[in-house]
Amino acid sequence: RGGAGDHRAGSLPGGANAIGLGPFAPLLVVRAFGELGGAVFGDESGIVRIEAQRGAHGAGVSLLATTRPLGPESDSWSAMTSPLGHHGPSVHSGAKLTQQKVYEEARAASRKSAVDEALLFDGSGHLVEGARSNLLIVDRAGTLATPDLALGAVAGIALEILSACVAELGVATFDKSDVINARELIAVNAVRGAVSITELDGRNIGGGASGPWAKRLHRLLADTP
User: Fold this and answer.
1) Among 12-16, 60-64, 76-80, 160-164, which stretch is predicted with the lowest mean pLDDT?
2) What percent helix, strand, coil does the chain show, rounded to 5?
3) pLDDT at residue 195 above 50?
4) What are phi and psi of 38, to 5 degrees?
5) At 39, phi and psi to the nearest 5?
6) Burial of 224: CB neighbours in 10 Å, binned 0-12, 13-18, 19+
7) What angle do CA 72, 114, 47 make, to 5 degrees?
8) DSSP code for 44
């Protein structure tokens, strides 16, 4: 659903090659999205998740595709601080990997607490990313920025798109107080687009309402082909 199809198609082969699985054609991803999504959801919206794995007997790459309903849309999210800190940069930083304990436990904690996202801070107290999304902050001066990917965050598709087309988007370092005092805290991912996080650990962020930057970025991502 939504835009960013070309980016989705290129992201998986690039990530797979970066972690040593080997190259494969983006066209395979496009075909998998189209065929499985059409078979399961028809003209409705849904989520197709495609994972690249090493092929049988260690040769080549195989694709594993699963589907799930999109679920209800929300104008804003609530969030919590993850019980586990982010592990920091690694040799495969930037690639979206499966079965990573810190993300699995963060997502499990958010489900248990009935919130939408869990924010991950590193050992120095710097904001890195969310368990489901990259994060953008509008500070009190109105400056839009995202944590440096060098801290170890996944290079998400939505963030890649916004970094290329939003000239105002910069990079900065944020601690917990910066997040709490932000004018806007925005989660971005390829499925939901851009969504305001208006509550963190039970405290309102940005007055508890979706802000203008989140709305602008959501429209931009929705319109991306």
Assistant:
1) 12-16
2) 35, 25, 40
3) yes
4) -65, -40
5) -70, -40
6) buried
7) 35
8) S
**Residue 147's pLDDT band (boundaries 50, 70, 90)?**
very high
Query: Distances from the Cα of 58 to the Cαs of 21, 52, 54, 61, in angstroms?
Result: 9, 13, 6, 8
The number of helices, as runs of H, and strands, as runs of E, in the chain is 6, 11
Query: Nearest to residue 187, comparing CAs of 113, 137, 149?
Result: 137
Q: CB within 8 A of 94, min separation 6: which ones? A: 15, 18, 149, 153, 154, 155
- pLDDT confidence of 155, banded at 50, 70, 90? confident
Residue type, 169: L
Which residue, chain included where needed, has tokens 């939504």?
Answer: 2
